Amino acid sequence: MTLQLNWSQAKTLFQRLGSVIGLLLLFIVLSVLSPDFLTTGNLLTVLRQVSINALIAFGMTFVILSGGIDLSVGAILAFTGAVTAGLMAAGHGMVLSVGAGLALGLVLGMVNGALVSWGKVAPFIATLGTLTLLRGLTLSYTQGSPIPVTNPGFAMLGGGYIANLIPLPVLWMAIAFILCGFLLRGTVFGRHVVAIGGNQEAARLSGVRLSPMKLAIYGLSGLLSAFAGVVLTSRLYSAQATAGAGYELDAIAAVVLGGTSLAGGRGWLFGTLIGALLIGFLNNGLNLLGVSSFYQQVVKGIVILIAVLLDRRQ
Amino acid sequence: MAAPLVSMHDIHKAFGPVKVLEGVDFELIAGEVHALMGENGAGKSTLMKILTGIYAPDSGTIQVDGQPVSITTPADAEKYGIAIIHQELNLIPALSVADNLFLGREIQRFGLLDRRAMTKKAMEWLAQVGMEKLDPDTLVERLSVGTQQMVEIARALGQNARVLIMDEPTAALSEHETTTLFKLIRALREKGTGIVYVSHRMEEIFALCDRISVLRDGKFVGTRPVPGLAFDEVVKMMVGRTLEARFPSRNVTPGKVRLQVEHISGGMVKDVSFDLRSGEVLGVSGLLGAGRTELARLLFGLDKPSEGRVLLDGEVVTATNPNQAIHAGFGFLTEDRKAQGLVLDLSLRENISLPRVPAHIGLVDRGGEKTQTRGLIDALKIRTRDMELNVSALSGGNQQKVVLAKWLALKPRVLILDEPTRGVDVGGKAEIYHIINQLAEQGVAILMISSELPEVLAMSDRILVMHEGHATALLEAHGATQETVMTAATGGH
Questions:
Q1: pLDDT tens by residue, B122-146
Q2: B63 & B21 share domain
Q3: For the domain that residue B420 is a member of, what is the CATH number?
Q4: Cβ–Cβ of B386/A4 closer than 8 Å?
Q5: Among B239, B265, B283, which residue terminates a domain?
Q6: Does domain A46-313 have CATH number 3.40.50?
Q7: Number of residue pairs across A and B with CB atoms under 8 Å?
Q8: Contacts (Cβ under 8 Å, ≥6 apart) of A240
Q9: ipTM, 2 dp
C-alpha cells in the first residue's frame, strides 16, 4: 500500500468519508438527546430492522454501479416471501420452501436482466413493469390475506438470536456484506460491473459480454431481495401481500447516501452499509424522540437531499 | 495603427499546485486567422477558457479594442463579442435550427414566442454563413456535423461576435465540409472578424492562417507570421527540439500470411478482399464514410457480415461478438478513445486489464495484475506517477498508450488500429509509431486505418484504399504518393 494520495484520490476519500462522518454525528446527537438510544437492546433492534434494507441495498449497489436501477426489489420480496410461506403452508419442508423462494427471486431478477439486455428496455421501465406485475401476482396468490407460518425452524431465520443476544438477521447482513464486498472487489465479475457502469461501450469492445453480465447483476439483486423476503416473512410469522412496499426507495436511498453515483461506474459497498445504517438510526432516533411518523418522512427526505447536495458540491 | 481586437498580457493561472499558464501573451487583430498551437496540456484550452470567461486568471490583463476589461463570466465574453465554437457542438438535437439559434434569447411578443420574427431573423443569420438554403424549421439532429457547425457559427455571428474561437473545427468534418468551412472563415476574415484557430493539423494551419502563436508547458514561446515560416520550425517551437524522424523506421520483413479476408460484405462494406502478413502494417485509407471503420467492425464481430469469410492463420473465424473476436486473436483500438476505448473513472491498472483480468477461477490475481500493468507502463513509456490514477487525468497521448497497453496485454495476432494518433500531439505520435513498429517486429499483423495520408504512406508496407465501401486499390506503400492514394480514394483511376 502506498500512503501517497493524489488529489483525485483524496477527494474521493473525503466524499466517501462524508457518510461515515454523518453517521457518527447522528450517533452523538441521538446519544445526547435520548437516554434510551445508546443501549445494547436498542442498537441491536435497529440493526435487525436495518438488515432487511441492507440486504436489498447490497444487490441494488451492483445494479446502480452497472448504470442501472431496480425498482422491483420490494415486489420480488413480497412475491417470494408469499411463495415460500405458501409452500410451507401446503406442507412442504423448510429447506425446499426457502430454496424455492430464493431460486424464484434469482429467476425473477434474471427476467429483469433479460428485459434490459435482450429486450433493450430501459432499466427504470423494465423493473417498473415487473414491480407492478409481481404486486398483482402476489395479491392474487395470497388473495389479499396474510399467509401464516408455523414452522418453528423457519421462524428462527428472522426471529432467532446468537448467544441470546445478536439477532440472526444481523448475522445474515454481515455474511452478505462480506460475500458481496468480495464479489465486487475481488472477482472479475465485480470489475466488469464497474466497467459497464463507467463506459458500457468500452467494456463491450474489451470483450465483456453485456447480456450474461446483466442477467447476473439483476439476478443477484433478485436473489438478495428474495432472501430479505424470507427473513422478513420469518420475523413476522406470516407473508403479507403488501410487504416491502416502498422498499426500493429505501434501498436506493441507502446506496446514494453511501456515495455511489446514480450514473454508475463509481461507488462502494461499505458506503451502502453506512447509508442503510444512517436511515435505520435516523428512523429509530425520531421514534425515540417522539417525532410523529408524518414528520419522520419529512426529515428523512431532507437528510437525503442534504447528503446528495453535499456530494455535488465537490 | 488601430488597437488589436484582443490583447492578453502576462496571464497566469494555476490549479492548486499545478501551474497551467505562466506569463502568456496573446494578441488577435481584426481580420486575421490566428492559429494557437501547442502539444496537449500546453495550456491552449485554459487560455481560451480565460478569454471566454469560464476561468478567471490569477493575474494578467485582457484588453479589448485597447480598453482593459474584466471577463469573469461567459456573459461578459458575449458582451465584448467573443464567442467560442466547441469541438463538441452545443446544439440541442431535438430542437429546430431556429430554436437553437435563439435558445436563451427568444424573441417574444406579449410573453409568447414570436416564431415568425425568429424564423425571419434565423434566415438572415444563416445567410451570413452561406446557408441560405437551410430551412430554419429543420431539426438539428437531421443535419450533418458540418452543417451543425455552420449553425453554431451563425448563432455566434447573430450575437455580433467579432472574435471567433474555433477548437479543432475540422476534426469531424468531411473533405467537402472542410472546404466550405474554410471558405466561410476567409469570408469572415475579409469582414474584419478575428478568428482564433486551435488545431493540431499543420497542413490546414499553413493553408489558412496568417499568424501562429505557440504555447509550450504553459509558457508563451512566440508568435510568427505564416508566410515564410517552415513546418519544422513550428514543430521545434512546440516540442522544444527538432524531431529527427517524424516516422521512425522499422526493421522487419513481413512473414507468412496471417489474415485472409475473402469477399467480405456487410452494411456499407462491399466485397472487400485482402490478406495481411505477420509483421506487416497494412494501411487503410479513404475518405470519411468510405467504410473503413465498418470493415474493422465486421472483422471484430461488432457487425455481421452478409457474405464472405475471414481466415486467421488458415482457419475460418466467425466472430459474432467482440468477446469471440478477442479469443480468436483480434485486438481493436477504436477511433474514439473516450467513448469506446477507456472507462475514464477507472484507474490505469483497471483499464489495462479490462479485456482480460489476471485471475484464477474468477478471483482477481492482484499481484499478477500489478506486475502486468507495471510491465506495460514501462514498455510503452506511459508517463504517470501511479498506476492507480484515473485515466481521465492523463494527456491524450498517454491515454492512447493505455488503450494500446490494454490490447498488448492480450498478445493479439491481429491488431486493428482505427486512427491511432487522433488527438495526440507531435511527440506522442512519434512514440505511438515506435510502438507500432515494435509490434510489427514481434510478428503482430497490423491493420491501420488512418485519415492522415503522410502517416499512412510512411508507416504502411501496403495500403488498402477504400471508396464507397469497395476496395479500390491495394498499393505498395513504397512508390505510392498522396496523389495516387487520393485518386483511388475518390473513385478515380
A1: 999 999 888 888 999 999 988 888 8
A2: yes
A3: 3.40.50.300
A4: yes
A5: B239
A6: no
A7: 83
A8: A78, A81, A142, A146
A9: 0.85
